[in-house]
Amino acid sequence: MGILLPVTLALLPLLILPNVVFYYDIAPKVAVLLFGAGIALFWFEDNRRAVLSLWHGRTGRWFIGLLGAQLVSLLLSTVMTAHPWFSVGGGNWRRFGLLSQTALVLFVLLAAAHCAANRKILQRSLQAVALSGCVMAAYGIAQYLGWDPLLPPASYLSGEGIYQIVRPPSTLGHAGYFATYLLFALAAALTLYQTNRRLAWCALILMPLAILLSGTRAALLGLAAGALCLVLLRRPSLRALGLFSAGVVAALGLLLLSPAGAKLVARAKWSADDVKGGARLLLWRDSLHLAQDHALLGAGLDLFGAVFPRYQSAELARAYPDFYHESPHNILLDTLTAQGLLGLLILIGLCGLALRSPRTNPELTAGLAAVLVSLQFTSFTLPTALAFFVLLAALLPESNLHEKNPGNFVWKLVPAVLGACLILAGMRVMLADYRFQQAKTALDAGRISEAVAQYLAAGETAQLGGQPDLYFSRRFTAARSLPEALVAGGQAASGPEDRSNALYNLAALHSASNDARAVEADLRAAIDSSPQWFKPHWMLARLLAGRGQFEEANREADRAVELDGGKHPEVTLTRDRIRLGQTPY
């Protein structure tokens, strides 16, 4: 574990494989966690001694108990949901289902036990996190400056002209997750200041700059909260604090006045125009309605996007008519909607346990405060969840290593079976995503038959969680391969993830086949899945008007206009034509 733990912590946030696997910034991280946790379980005797040592301390017992309760909560929330197999693997956007969260809990348990028993392992782990954080920060800064050898810059540019902004994702897929993770890496680096000052200063220069350039308000607020916490705990002299603050202000002023600061100024204007943080306030309010109906065990892991559309208010739909809400973007609400009150109480208990730990570490405590603040506006992904729980584990008090005494057969059999299952699961994740990427590559080259074969083979491998069926249905449609598009479209519509969008796509495919009855069934199913989405109401109104059913068409057209919020003039035009008794084609 002295090598495996630091390597896993360093590799997981860094590894991306564009053009190798389909979800290049997600699947490799899932695989690293599954491999890391699986291999770690084979250190039978070392793990037994470390876990028993942690158990002998009062704080350690509470930590182990809460992690055990978390496993039970995850299992219950998965079993009791309407889509248990999907919830096991998790959705496409983060793969945060039972499989990855179980691996996360087991890895954190072993990390906590070994770090508490051997402070050298903790120091190596923090050093690995700090080093990988510096690499990520440097890459993010390079992306901001326009140099990216791995990803197309257009994927993280928004706006045009002087108002164009850049949101560098580094290796984490989104600027918000990237900046939040850097708060953890910065805390790890500052903890090592006495033993590795060069690394600490490198982190202190690169990471705050990368957080600033990411344009992530949540992380900037977290950085300010962490800095304030550290000042209160360390109590530096006023002179040192004043000099440091003056240096920060001067550096920020120079950056904003330089050509490199133009996009940062544009981002500041965007933020000023969106003080409420986009859809968050309405999203949080509607999420509470969802949580109220699934109070005890939640709606299921990674199923927010599937369940929330039925709770989305017309007000939120009008404000953001074409937006898919995959998460509440708040870890407390995220946990509450997924695992219910049981999961939320466990999360709060773990935070309270770490903050009340007898072992005081100002830098790690400040890091936890910073990450907690930032996560009130973002969701858990594997890297940020790992960072959060490793921070909790690092704050546990030191334990005395338990005496050597070979354990019974169960101590080897159970971890061996679990470890083998996790390793095999990691291999399947990578194989399925590799095949999906091969199908995409074949489509890009116009090799349709090869793409179909790879897509079908990938689907047989990826039997749990979400799959990119909707993407491939649209790609097959664009390639004029309608039978394959219908197969992929039907597969997408049968799953819970973004189901209304998949049904809408299926309606378009059936329309191309002149199957009006199937089109109507698809649109009504899409409305049932997402009642507040304007598009299926709009298309159903057009269909009904074409049949001469103007009374119902009028109702659907009025509903579409109401939910669209005036964002699309063509929706209002359809309503006006139907009112005049004209066919809206």
In a nutshell, what does this entry contain?
This protein is mostly helical.
Profile the largest sheet: 2 strands, antiparallel
Series of secondary-structure elements, N-terminal to C-terminal: HHHHHHHEEHHHHHHHHHHHHHHHHHHHH
How much helicity do the residues have? over 70%
Shape: globular
Task: Write structural notes for this entry.
With 585 residues, the chain is mainly alpha-helical. It has a domain of 391 residues. The chain has 27 helices and two strands. Strands 1-2 form a two-stranded antiparallel sheet. Helix 4 runs antiparallel to helix 16, helix 7 packs across helix 9 and helix 17 packs antiparallel against helix 18. The chain starts with a helix and ends in a 6-residue tail after the last helix.
What does the secondary structure layout of this molecule look like, with pairings?
Layout: H1 4-14, H2 27-40, H3 44-55, H4 58-79, H5 84-89, H6 98-117, H7 119-144, E1 157-158, E2 165-166, H8 175-191, H9 197-214, H10 217-234, H11 238-257, H12 262-273, H13 280-293, H14 304-307, H15 314-319, H16 331-355, H17 362-374, H18 382-394, H19 410-444, H20 448-461, H21 469-478, H22 482-494, H23 499-512, H24 516-529, H25 534-546, H26 550-564, H27 569-579
